[in-house]
């Protein structure tokens, strides 16, 4: 508030997070400056300001303390002229009493005004104040009761002690209503039941005449814990519809508990365009011990489904770039004429004019054609030829001709043999196969690049899954050490006054999480943050006590070689008698290198034969390369299960 013009003043956001007793003190001191409490004729406390935003903020804080108020526009005298301003008036006697109890004790140097307010409340009957102003239309009832009683307006004014100016005719245009005690006094004079009912009702509702748009404005919601209410832009709203939400929550919880596969299939179908959501839902399936089968052109529907063994079958609609129209043709053909027997059979039956090459390549890369026989690499290589033959076949079918390929699709050669013309090719390396899967599904389904490093990741004592951070809104952290392992899904940099910082999105197959890397850390470790690199972020988690949001401060970045070099405690190599007899020792000896420094990590060889088992610990002068290539080579030599990294 300091240093701002009168028209620009606002209450700092931090104030809204203070406890009630501090807000009482704040408003009391605020009222000491530009507030009014009471005088001999006016007994409605108000706060005056030239800032509409400040008036709105004061109204919101009053509401926090259970004090309803109303904002009025005013014209204040200012340096020989006038300036637009606003006053926040406390509404109703009950609110004035609350104001007196909670805010006035913190007001300074307003003893005279305070005495007037006390005197007024002492001489005013309770329960006759206005919670809601009775609409001005009540003047028609007053006029009817006056005529029934045979009184003139002057006689009524003298008898009631009330001014009748606003009851004449239609009154003034700006008159919005009358106080309850005014109408109660008139009801007493006329002995009018209807006026008495209006004066003593809890709420008097206006009829809605019209609803007109006033434009758009940002609003905020504050949930009131335990009561399940919320404050929306200063208005307390009772969440009566929370009962309906509770019913829906109960129904979905029941479905998840008793029919988990069907429930998760439905949820993933609803969100299959949202890859990040599907990643999280797949992790939920793993937690529920639900098996999710990859997309299969001979089993999958457009949406996620469940088979008779309670397994979830991945929906074809979640394959990116395939298109619903093309997929519908394939599913329709399968349902009509049976499962596809081969890639050539599929091309023939689908029609290459309707299902183009791009769609078929996408489905091959996603693994949806794995059941047709052949590797994904072989199918991609064979696809142009299969499409050419299918076009030729369908063209000849249209003209009643046959050709050299007639036997392939229905002539001299049985339908079960077309895949024999597909070249035999080894499958893509695992990393490339997964990359193509990620390209078409938006996620890693049948594996993950991190799988290769499970032993390294499992050994990180303070490691957390990304889903534990991304979806955790309740745990409060205070500089808790943490390690996050993941694949770098994306990196974007931002230039600041201090240099370049980065926003790194990680994927560990449970969720996506974006971490900010400050300039000094990024300068030191930026070379490790390449897309699709597997890294470990080391840092601390801290929860902002004001906003409740948890932030990660990254202090170090490790690649997997760095993880091994910094955290490996022991390397265990297992050898069996049969391997030794086959002459594996010379090959192993070639991979053992002299250590640059003794004692970097011990190497133990576990030897087995039919009669005994022995642990042989090598001297500290021996080591093996800890880069990815070195570890892969060692696992290829001894077998993956025979190389253990102990952290």
In brief:
With 647 residues, the protein is α+β, with helices and mostly antiparallel strands. Helix content is 39%, strand content 19%. It has 5 domains: 6-122, Endonuclease I-creI, CATH 3.10.28.10; 134-200, Orthogonal Bundle (434 Repressor (Amino-terminal Domain)), CATH 1.10.260; 253-441, no CATH class; 449-564, OB fold (Dihydrolipoamide Acetyltransferase, E2P); 568-646, no CATH class.
Distance between the termini: 55 Å
Beta-strand segment tally: 23
Shape label: elongated
**Largest sheet, strands/sense/barrel:** 5 strands, antiparallel
What would you report as the Rg, rounded to the nearest angstrom? 39 Å
Beta-strand content bin: 15-25%
Which secondary-structure class do the elements indicate? alpha+beta
Sequence of strands across the biggest β-sheet: 15-14-13-16-17
Helix content: 25-40%
3D structure, described in words:
The protein is of the alpha+beta class and 647 residues long. It has five domains: 6-122, Homing endonucleases (Endonuclease I-creI), CATH 3.10.28.10; 134-200, 434 Repressor (Amino-terminal Domain), CATH 1.10.260; 253-441, no CATH class; 449-564, Nucleic acid-binding proteins (OB fold (Dihydrolipoamide Acetyltransferase, E2P)), CATH 2.40.50; 568-646, no CATH class. The strands form seven sheets. It has a five-stranded antiparallel β-sheet with strand order 15-14-13-16-17. Helix 14 packs antiparallel against helix 15 (376-399). The longest helix is centred in the middle third of the chain and has 24 residues, at 376-399.
């Amino acid at each position: 508030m300091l240093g701002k013009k009168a028209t620009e003043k606002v209450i700092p956001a931090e104030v809204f997070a203070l406890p009630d007793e501090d807000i009482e003190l704040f408003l009391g001191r605020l009222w000491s400056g530009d507030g009014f409490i009471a005088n001999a004729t006016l007994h409605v406390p108000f706060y005056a300001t030239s800032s509409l935003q400040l008036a709105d903020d004061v109204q919101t804080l009053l509401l926090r303390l259970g004090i309803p108020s109303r904002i009025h526009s005013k014209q204040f005298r200012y340096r020989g002229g006038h300036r637009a301003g606003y006053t926040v008036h406390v509404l109703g006697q009950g609110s004035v009493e609350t104001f007196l109890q909670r805010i006035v004790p913190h007001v300074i140097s307003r003893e005279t005004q305070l005495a007037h307010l006390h005197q007024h409340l002492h001489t005013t009957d309770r329960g006759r104040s206005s919670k809601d102003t009775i609409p001005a239309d009540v003047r028609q009832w007053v006029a009817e009761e006056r005529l029934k009683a045979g009184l003139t307006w002057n006689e009524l004014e003298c008898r009631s002690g009330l001014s009748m100016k606003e009851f004449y005719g239609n009154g003034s245009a700006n008159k919005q209503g009358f106080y309850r005690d005014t109408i109660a006094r008139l009801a007493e004079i006329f002995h009018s039941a209807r006026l008495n009912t209006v004066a003593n009702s809890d709420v008097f509702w206006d009829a809605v005449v019209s609803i007109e748009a006033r434009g758009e404005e940002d609003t905020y919601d504050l949930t009131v814990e335990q009561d399940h209410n919320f404050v929306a832009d200063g208005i307390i709203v009772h969440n009566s519809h929370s009962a309906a939400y509770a019913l829906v929550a109960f129904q979905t919880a029941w479905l998840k508990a008793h029919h988990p596969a069907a429930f998760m299939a439905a949820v993933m179908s609803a969100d299959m365009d949202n890859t990040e959501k599907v990643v999280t839902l797949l992790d939920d399936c793993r937690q529920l011990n639900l098996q999710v089968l990859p997309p299969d052109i001979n089993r999958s529907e457009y949406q996620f489904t469940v088979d008779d063994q309670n397994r979830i079958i991945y929906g074809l609609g979640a394959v990116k770039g395939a298109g619903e129209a093309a997929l519908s043709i394939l599913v329709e053909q399968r349902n009509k004429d049976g499962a596809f027997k081969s890639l050539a059979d599929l091309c023939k039956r689908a029609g290459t004019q309707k299902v183009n090459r791009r769609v078929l390549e996408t489905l091959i890369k996603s693994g949806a054609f794995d059941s047709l026989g052949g590797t994904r690499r072989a199918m991609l290589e064979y696809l142009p030829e299969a499409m050419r033959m299918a076009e030729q076949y369908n063209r000849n079918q249209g003209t009643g001709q046959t050709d050299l390929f007639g036997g392939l699709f229905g002539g001299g050669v049985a339908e079960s043999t077309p895949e024999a013309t597909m070249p035999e090719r080894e499958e893509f390396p695992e990393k490339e196969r997964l990359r193509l899967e990620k390209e078409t599904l938006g996620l890693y389904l049948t594996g993950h690049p991190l799988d290769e490093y499970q032993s390294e990741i499992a050994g990180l004592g303070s490691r957390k899954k990304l889903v534990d951070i991304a979806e955790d809104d309740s745990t409060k952290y205070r500089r808790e050490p943490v390690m996050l392992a993941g694949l770098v899904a994306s990196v974007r940099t931002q230039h600041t006054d201090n240099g370049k910082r980065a926003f790194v999105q990680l994927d560990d197959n449970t969720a996506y999480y974006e971490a900010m890397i400050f300039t000094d850390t990024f300068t030191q470790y930026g070379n490790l943050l390449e897309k699709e690199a597997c890294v470990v972020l080391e840092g601390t988690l801290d929860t902002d006590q004001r906003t409740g949001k948890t932030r990660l401060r990254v202090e170090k970045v490790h690649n997997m070689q760095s993880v091994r070099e910094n955290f490996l405690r022991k390397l265990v190599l297992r050898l069996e008698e049969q391997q030794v007899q086959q002459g594996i020792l010379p090959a192993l000896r070639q991979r053992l290198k002299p250590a640059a420094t003794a004692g970097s990590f011990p190497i133990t060889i576990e030897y087995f034969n039919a009669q005994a088992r022995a642990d042989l610990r090598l001297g500290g002068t021996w080591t093996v390369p800890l880069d990815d290539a070195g570890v892969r080579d060692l696992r290829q030599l001894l077998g993956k299960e025979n190389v253990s990294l102990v952290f």
